[in-house]
């Protein structure tokens, strides 16, 4: 019961739980400039993400991880969300026909290449770290040209279908301001 003697509905209870969790997520969100930026971004993206991850707490935890790893790699978190939508449709256990794993569809050979064979690419944080750093590497290699970096990420350099698919998802679902794409 609340102070007025009325019982909270299930929707009100979920909203209150989300508010409490969001408050905690914001205070733990160290990749944001300040608390206000964290609140605005997490609230905005949580609404957009609801169709992909139903549980509000899991959604906010995931979004904090995406923001942290994208920011650490100097990438737009919104572009990373678009890439994940294209690569795995937010399925952390996705495996492609060529063996790429997880949210960002990272090839397992990278674990051996960097001397971490025991890393679990279906772990969201691990996968996000690998994927974001790989994309940043390609972005540097392509001198800031995100279109070419995305094509390289996908193994389709010289073709535009993959970058256009990512940009399409970004425009439709994740657009949150300008991103330099060329």
Automatic annotation (TrEMBL):
Keywords: Lyase. The keyword DNA-binding does not apply. It is an enzyme of class 4 (lyase). Residues 69-159 form the Transglycosylase SLT domain. InterPro entries: Lysozyme-like_dom_sf (IPR023346), Transglycosylase_SLT_dom_1 (IPR008258). Its EC number is 4.2.2.n1. Pfam families: SLT. It comes from the Bacteria. GO terms for molecular function: lyase activity. Belongs to the transglycosylase Slt family. This is Lytic transglycosylase domain-containing protein. It comes from Zhongshania arctica.
């Amino acid at each position: 019961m609340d102070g007025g003697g009325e019982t909270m509905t299930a929707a009100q209870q979920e909203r209150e739980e989300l508010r409490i969790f969001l408050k905690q997520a914001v205070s733990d969100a160290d990749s944001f400039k300040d608390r206000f930026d964290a609140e605005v971004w997490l609230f905005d993206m949580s609404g957009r993400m609801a169709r992909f991850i139903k549980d509000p707490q899991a959604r906010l935890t995931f979004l904090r991880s995406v923001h942290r790893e994208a920011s650490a790699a100097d990438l737009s978190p919104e572009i990373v969300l678009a890439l994940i939508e294209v690569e795995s449709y937010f399925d952390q256990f996705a495996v492609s026909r060529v063996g790429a794993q997880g949210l960002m569809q990272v090839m397992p050979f990278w674990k051996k290449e960097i001397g971490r064979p025991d890393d679990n690419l279906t772990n969201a944080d691990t996968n996000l770290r690998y994927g974001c750093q790989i994309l940043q590497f390609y972005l540097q290699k392509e001198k800031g040209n995100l279109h070419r970096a995305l094509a390289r990420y996908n193994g389709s350099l010289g073709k535009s279908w993959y970058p256009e698919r990512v940009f399409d998802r970004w425009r439709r679902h994740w657009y949150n301001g300008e991103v330099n794409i060329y």
